[in-house]
Amino acid sequence: MTNEEFQRLVLEKLDKLDERMSALEGRQDKLEIGQEQIIKELRGVVEQTADLMEFRYEVKEELADIKANISRIEIATADNWSDIARLKSIRHL
């Protein structure tokens, strides 16, 4: 193998290596872009999760208030039934 042939072979290999490196850089750029998109979407998910947690807390508080109101209504209803029964018994006397 002559010196020129060796140099040509080395240059061909370097050209192929440069092409492969360029391809790798392109793929790396795509990965970085994808990673940025994932980060943006993750931030959105985190915000939505925070909103949902706040909503859940508010709903639980309102549900507790509703349960308390129902208990008061049940007590008032029981008192009313008692009064109705007492009035009926007085009327039949």
Could you list some keywords that capture this structure?
93 residues, mainly alpha, 96% helix, 0% strand, rod-shaped
Topology (SSEs and partners):
Elements: H1 3-91
Mean pLDDT: 96
Apparent shape: rod-shaped
How does the helix and strand content classify structurally? mainly alpha
Using DSSP, what is the number of strands? 0
Radius of gyration: 39 Å
Q: Flag low-confidence runs.
A: none
Reading the helices and strands in chain order gives H
The biggest beta sheet, please? none
- How much helix is in the residues? over 70%
Distance between the ends: 132 Å
What fraction strand?
under 5%
**Annotation field: number of helices:** 1
Please provide a brief summary of the model:
The chain is mainly α and 93 residues long. The protein has one helix at 3-91.
Task: Describe the protein in words.
The structure is a single chain. The chain is mainly alpha-helical and 93 residues long. It has one helix and no strands.
